[in-house]
Design goal:
The structure holds two protein chains of two kinds. By secondary structure, chain A is mostly helical. Chain A is elongated, with a radius of gyration of 33 Å. By secondary structure, chain B is mainly α. Chain B contains seven helices and no strands. In chain B, helix 2 runs antiparallel to helix 3 and helix 3 runs antiparallel to helix 4. The chains are: A mainly alpha, B mainly alpha. The interface between A and B is large, with 45 and 67 residues.
Chain lengths: 136, 261
């Protein structure tokens, strides 16, 4: 391993554990390549932005939080969708009358409540009133 | 201490925003809210159109005519957008309705989707340079489409949603009924319950078959689809009453079985 590091021509690295040096060199080489691809004006602007620590932190922290939030939402958001699709009616539970069924069977009670408050006409979804007579 | 406080605050903040992102799922409720938003936008633009029209008619200058033309154009575009939002809300409601087979849903979706496409492409027909006469003609296209094709599909969708819910409730009752039956060791004392329940289920199933056939009447030529819908709604009310009876019968059976045990 030491031989390999010497082949690269970095002589000072010999005192440091060789494996770490290689990774560091590869990484720094990779970043140097990327840096070389970015126009100098942009690099200069980024350096200027980074040197102003207050501004840098004020911008990057909120952006980071927003990105993190979106990623978490995308990862865990899917589960909610499947739960929602299984709902059969949007009738709010708050409008449901208290159960009077004597059985104590919760499933039957729930169904009774659903039947009592069921809107056959689907009033909420009735077509909107539109006036087509618009000529003048 | 300070670091811990910042970490906890950040986690709470992330959890809060994550819950907001989760709430963006497109459910029937979300689609309904979109429809309500489109309805508000349309109502506002219709009111603007009405005022601009009245101003122009009371003082017929070219600038007031231009203002009325622009307000008419905005209102007509919003009207097509409203139709799209409304039909989409119906579609998503059907998606969430249990009790319907995928074929039954698919049959309605095909009709709804063709309407969504029509209104989407019709909005594109409106040009900023359209004269008032052009706008009136294009409005007539929407009117004709709505009255002859869209409206029957809307009533079919509304009828299908209720029918699906009733089928779902009947199936839920049947499931409870079969569970209760499994617990009964000697069925003799409960025979009269079984007779009542089986007869009600049979009637409900027959009603469902009849109701599915009734949907075609919304596309008839002799009466308006709204009239036909209101007439056929009576059948769904009858089924709902039968479902209430079924619930009572099964509840009585459940109580009797518990008393016997």
């Amino acid at each position: 391993m030491n031989e390999e590091t010497l082949k690269t021509g970095v002589t000072q690295v010999a005192e440091v554990p060789p494996a770490k040096v290689n990774r560091f060199q590869k990484l720094s080489g990779f970043f140097e390549k990327i840096k070389g691809m970015i126009p100098p004006k942009v690099v200069e602007a980024l350096n200027k932005f980074y040197s102003n620590k207050k501004m840098f932190l004020a911008v990057t922290i909120p952006i980071g939080l927003i990105l993190l939030t979106i990623i978490i939402g995308l990862i865990f958001g899917g589960k909610n969708q499947t739960q929602n699709t299984t709902k059969s009616t949007p009738t709010p539970a708050a409008t449901v009358a208290p159960s009077e069924a004597p059985s104590g069977n919760s499933e039957l009670d729930t169904l009774k409540n659903r039947l009592d408050s069921y809107d056959v006409r689907q009033s909420r979804l009735q077509p909107p009133v539109i006036n087509f007579d618009i000529k003048f | 201490m300070k670091k811990t406080a910042i970490t906890i605050f950040s986690i709470i903040l992330i959890a809060f925003f994550a819950s907001i992102v989760r709430a963006q799922d497109f459910t029937a409720e979300k689609a309904y809210q979109d429809y309500q938003f489109s309805l508000d936008t349309y109502n506002k633009s219709y009111s603007d159109y009405q005022h601009a029209k009245d101003f122009y008619l009371s003082n017929q200058t070219s600038s007031l005519k231009e203002d009325a033309r622009q307000k008419t154009l905005a209102m007509l575009k919003n009207r097509d957008l409203l139709m799209n939002a409304y039909i989409t809300a119906l579609r998503i409601k059907i998606v969430e309705t249990k009790g319907l087979t995928s074929d039954e849903k698919g049959s309605v979706f095909t009709k709804i989707d063709s309407e969504v496409s029509w209104y989407k492409s019709h909005i594109e027909n409106y040009k900023d340079s359209d004269s008032l006469e052009d706008l009136f003609n294009k409005s007539s296209e929407s009117e004709s489409r709505y009255k002859t094709i869209t409206l029957p599909i809307i009533y079919e969708s509304l009828f299908t949603i209720t029918l699906g819910d009733e089928i779902d409730m009947r199936e839920a009752h049947e499931s409870i009924y079969s569970k209760i039956k499994e617990t009964i060791k000697s069925p003799e004392p409960f025979t009269h319950f079984f007779t009542d329940i089986d007869l009600t289920v049979k009637t409900l199933k027959q009603n469902e078959t009849d109701e599915k056939a009734l949907v075609q009447s919304f596309y008839g030529q002799f009466a308006s689809s709204a009239d036909n819908y209101n007439t056929e709604l009576g059948k769904l009310v009858t089924s709902l009453n039968s479902l209430k009876k079924l619930n009572e019968f099964i509840t009585e059976l459940s109580v009797s079985v518990k008393n016997q045990q």
